[in-house]
Design goal:
mainly beta; nine-stranded antiparallel beta sheet; 3 helices; globular; disordered N terminus
Length: 157
């Protein structure tokens, strides 16, 4: 993710979407999805460690029957981001995605107003960082479901 003033940008640059499905987010919309959690949200969800999450199409070429996405997360107390490559199997109502290297699974569904819902699988999601590992648990805590809005594509560059 980038050092940007996202709350201000999101307020000034609405990103209308034509999305009616998960696929539309990446084919008709910007494909760029970012959510920064403010202090009030984090105070209301004390077990949430994720402070920012981003999901966008990977620069790598898709494989037959799969869509490749880049997933980035930042967490409390760490000044760097974690990245994972996700291999997603498109479906009519949802996409089933797995992280590279047996890093776990998640489901993507379309929500209203250009938002994707990322639901962490029960086995969690594992990320390898520059200095350590991170696990988001799918069966406990407040890092299980993320609503990630579509934002203008230039915010993901």
């Amino acid at each position: 993710m980038r050092q940007i003033v996202l709350p201000l940008m999101l307020g000034l640059l609405p990103c209308p979407t034509l999305a009616d499905s998960v696929a539309d987010h990446f084919r008709k919309g910007s494909g760029c999805h970012i959510r920064q959690y403010n202090a009030a949200h984090l105070a209301g969800h004390p077990e949430q460690t994720v402070t920012e999450i981003a999901l966008n199409p990977s620069a790598l070429p898709n494989e037959p029957g799969l869509e490749l996405l880049d997933l980035f997360v930042q967490v409390k107390g760490r000044n760097y981001e974690y990245h994972a490559l996700a291999y997603c199997e498109p479906g009519p109502k949802q996409w089933s995605c797995g992280l590279e290297g047996d890093g776990g699974r998640f489901i993507l569904t379309h929500e209203k107003q250009g938002t994707l819902r990322l639901t962490v699988g029960k086995g969690g999601l594992g990320f390898e960082g520059a200095q350590d590992f991170l696990t988001l648990y799918g069966d406990r805590g407040d890092d299980r479901v993320f609503l990630i809005p579509s934002v203008p594509a230039e915010l993901c560059q």
